[in-house]
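Title: Prediction job returns without error message
Component: structure pipeline
Severity: low
Priority: P3
Assignee: unassigned

Description:
Job completed but the reporter wants confirmation the result is attached to the right record. Sequence as submitted:
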Amino acid sequence: MTRQVPLFINGEFVQSASNDKRDVLNPATQAVLAEVPFATPDEVDVAVASAKDAFQTWRDVPVAERARLMMRYQALLKAYHDELGEILAHDTGKTFEDAKGDVWRGIEVVEQAANIPSNMMGETVENVANGIDTYTYIQPLGVCVGITPFNFPAMIPLWMFPLAIAAGNTFVLKPSEQVPLTPVRLVELFIEAGAPKGVLNMVHGGPDQVNQLLEHPDVRAASFVGSSHVGEHIYRTGTAAGKRVQCMMGAKNHMVIMPDADPNAVLNALVGSSVGAGGQRCMGISVAMFVGDSSQLIDALAERLATAQPGVWDDASASYGPLISPQARERVLGLISKGTEEGATCLLDGSDCTVDGYPDGNWVGPTLFKDVTPEMSIYKEEIFGPVLCCMQVETLEEAIAQINSLEVGNGVSLFTASGGAARKFQHEILVGQVGINIPIPVPLPFFSFTGWRGSFRGDLHAYGKQAVRFYTETKTITAKWSFQEPAATGGGQPNMSINLR
């Protein structure tokens, strides 16, 4: 009998009453791993109601106690790190090492959530006027929602609910229906860490369930990571309903190579950053922009990239796994075909890739184009596959101008030996996350994930201090007290002890 993925509502895993169910497939074999139900409207309402009820008591739990919950949770995530990696590898098709990296980056955010007390401190000014003091409190919002994508089913949920809950909110998670098994295990460990019932809830579904959450009167804020098309809809729908919304969306990330860059470092960085995770990551490099004579590296790049081949999760020699679905594979193959039709030179074509023993896997081999121009589909669209486009420009100024002309601005990288070139680039580029001799500049979680322009909708970014501000409100108190000596009563001494436990 096929396993049905449960919902998690009010502290219990429950089987959905929905008749709308989808198969969860192993991307390497198409074997059915489980069946995921699309929650009924009543089930979504009950999940939100559970979170709303839990908020009434959770918001008053001391911030140090909330931090201790996160300490226990990160300890459990570390203890079950490899188990989570294996579940995630089957869920997504990622190699084991890549899957473990997904888990670890999530653990780092939970560690930051354990530091929540210092991020919940307000500000104080004594005697702003005659005997008047002003101070601020940082207080939670209420019920928050997270809508997460298929490509990082551990890391991105852990970007969201631990920080929101540590800040005193309660949460409803709607993970991708394509990869629900990893989030189920994350929830199990959160409960094992001691989370009270109702603080975290999880429902599954698609657009109908998402829209219900976004329009629900008891939801205060929503976080989303995914495609630009969906993100724009979520931002419009959520803000129209009066919610605070943050959407991390699409990208077209460039790596600019100066003639003085270290060749071996460039080649290694381009291979890993372009085909890692099968190219299915919003911070992956999909365009290599060669400045001047650095274009001499393109032939060597083709040789190096050809050595990176896909395989199944436990194949230690595999560089990456299959794409998430047959539909994703067909879309990538269509763009590869368009690239050739529109005049790009295909140096390496992964369209006919196969993996021995796995004829039904969603395989695409490493693919490399040169002579790519801004008008081509493979440049304008986010391919989300193991496809790297090479462009050539004469100057750093041309590279900066081209990148700044795009609508998106998630990540970018520059490889150079020149501090002056690096300074110019990082100052003038209109992209939120910049790497200097680093291909994928994803910040550690005490900073924030800061995509710009069309890669982001909202005012406050994911994780770090900005996420704490996203999940909280600031209350300002202005107070004046007049002092008078109390009349003598002859009573006993007052009890001044305070229980800080």
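Comment from assignee: result matches the submitted record. The first strand starts at residue 7 and ends at 9.
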